[in-house]
Fold this sequence. Notes:
Blueprint: E1 10-14, E2 26-30, E3 37-45, E4 50-53, E5 70-79, E6 82-85, H1 89-123, H2 125-129, E7 137-143, E8 146-153, E9 156-162, E10 167-170, H3 180-202
Antiparallel strand pairs: 1-5, 2-3, 2-5, 3-4, 5-6, 7-8, 8-9, 9-10
Amino acid sequence: xxxxxxxxxxxxxxxxxxxxxxxxxxxxxxxxxxxxxxxxxxxxxxxxxxxxxxxxxxxxxxxxxxxxxxxxxxxxxxxxxxxxxxxxxxxxxxxxxxxxxxxxxxxxxxxxxxxxxxxxxxxxxxxxxxxxxxxxxxxxxxxxxxxxxxxxxxxxxxxxxxxxxxxxxxxxxxxxxxxxxxxxxxxxxxxxxxxxxxxxxxx
Length: 203
């Protein structure tokens, strides 16, 4: 559901009760195929069922939901003490349309700009020009007992470290602002700082 929802945000869900599900709502439901919890946006409501689509997906879900599958509507996302409202209904529908246009535009333009983008990113020109105050910062989130490295620019998560692929996954165009040759050193320094803080707290 990126960019609507971003890790490690906590979602706020309210039950529908007597309210009807609307196109544009972000719904929390159990998959009728696997019973796994999913958060996707409602894109169509018919007598046969309810169709959903993830904001970061291009194809709608293969299954149709029934009202009993939907546990509630996602109305907000929390990051620490900061609450961010999640649009639903007509406003949510407009958000979904805008994201759909972005996907289509990206699909058309990316093949043309990708070589230039990679060339600029590999040279790290913009990363070196940035003031240290405005450079992305590495932080560690502990999720389910495991440390996860993420890259923040201000309040926005712009990338994360893929432990399986052993590489950083950085959103465009923020890759231009990152000097990847220094990321590994910063990552190790952040890890050591965290270990030292834990030892200090225990002592």
